[in-house]
């Protein structure tokens, strides 16, 4: 079984590239993040023709996640139990808006795909350590761990993958000094990620290909991609059954090249399932 995860940064903007990539790489299961598409408007044409069923969660704003599967799609979960919402409105952190009811954003979808249980997640960015969005990010990661822990045990292969917006270690950013005081690398974020792994998950680290460090995200600005000034924030976490089945894992840098790419590259994992 071939599984993959990709923050496409708008599925509609990336649709021709997505179709081309599916034909080339042929994953059995693909998790998407930042689809920026309402669930009812998800562009399934071209996907169903390629044999994929689609489970999508989205409200048409900057979030949105989906699972594409050609090996079955059952037991779909739109979000997870206890998933926290964000109290401020999408316009920003105006104090006058913080008393509004929390909005549960479109950031998680789970499904059984053949023998594999998979979750596609788009962890909140956090913005800055001083922002209410940062506390929301930590709460979200803790709630994810609590919700998924019961699914990790047993012989059924399980994987949670997506854009975690956290670099697990200093080796996962191009220059640790460049991120001092910023999100994605703070001790609190990394500790929450470590707690998730400690619940029974293995970090399926992609093998290095062109570069020593398999980054997955490069900002559009200042030629950061050709300079390999990136981060590894897209992750595949697998339980013992899935981790034991991993044959290969790599970052498809070619998908980050060319005209109109996402700022993320896909991770592809081959499993003996």
Automatic annotation (TrEMBL):
Keywords: Hydrolase, Magnesium, Manganese, Metal-binding
Site (Transition state stabilizer): 165
SUPFAM superfamilies associated with the record: DNase I-like
Source taxonomy: Bacteria, Bacillati, Actinomycetota, Actinomycetes, Micromonosporales
Annotated gene: xth
Keyword Transcription appears in the UniProt entry: no
Annotated coiled-coil segments of the chain: none
Domain Endonuclease/exonuclease/phosphatase: 4-264
Site features described as Interaction with DNA substrate, chain residue numbers: 264
Annotated site, Important for catalytic activity, chain positions: 234
Ligand binding (Mg(2+)): 7, 34, 163, 165, 263-264
EC primary class: hydrolase
Record-given protein name: Exodeoxyribonuclease III
Species assigned in the record: Natronosporangium hydrolyticum
Family indicated by similarity: Belongs to the DNA repair enzymes AP/ExoA family.
InterPro entries, sorted: AP_endonuc_1 (IPR004808), AP_endonuclease_F1_BS (IPR020847), Endo/exonu/phosph_ase_sf (IPR036691), Endo/exonuclease/phosphatase (IPR005135), ExoIII-like (IPR037493)
Pfam family, one: Exo_endo_phos
GO biological process terms on file: DNA repair
GO molecular function: DNA binding; double-stranded DNA 3'-5' DNA exonuclease activity; endonuclease activity; metal ion binding
Active site location: 122, 163, 264
Cofactor: Mg(2+); Mn(2+)
């Amino acid at each position: 079984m071939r599984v993959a995860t990709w923050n496409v940064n708008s599925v509609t903007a990336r649709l021709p590239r997505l179709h081309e990539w599916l034909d080339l790489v042929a994953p059995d299961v693909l998790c998407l993040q930042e689809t920026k598409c309402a669930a009812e408007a998800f562009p399934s044409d071209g996907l169903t023709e390629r044999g994929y069923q689609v489970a999508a969660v989205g409200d048409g704003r900057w979030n949105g996640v989906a699972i594409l599967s050609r090996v079955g799609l059952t037991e779909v979960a739109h979000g997870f139990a206890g998933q926290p919402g964000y109290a401020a409105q999408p316009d920003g952190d105006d104090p006058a808006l913080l008393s509004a009811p929390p909005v549960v954003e479109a950031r998680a979808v789970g499904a059984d795909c053949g023998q594999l249980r998979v979750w596609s997640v788009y962890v909140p960015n956090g913005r800055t350590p001083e922002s209410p969005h940062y506390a929301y990010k930590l709460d979200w990661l803790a709630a994810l761990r609590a919700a998924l822990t019961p699914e990790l045990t047993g012989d059924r292969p399980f994987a949670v993958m997506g854009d975690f917006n956290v670099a697990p270690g200093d080796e996962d950013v191009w220059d640790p000094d460049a991120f001092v005081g910023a999100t994605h690398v703070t001790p609190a974020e990394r500790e929450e990620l470590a707690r998730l792994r400690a619940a029974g998950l293995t970090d399926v680290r992609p093998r290095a290909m062109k570069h020593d460090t398999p980054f997955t995200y490069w900002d559009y600005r200042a030629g950061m991609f050709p300079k390999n000034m990136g981060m590894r924030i897209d992750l595949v976490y697998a339980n013992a059954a899935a981790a034991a089945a991993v044959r290969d894992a790599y970052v498809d840098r070619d998908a980050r090249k060319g005209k109109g790419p996402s700022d993320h590259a896909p991770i592809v994992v081959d499993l003996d399932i």
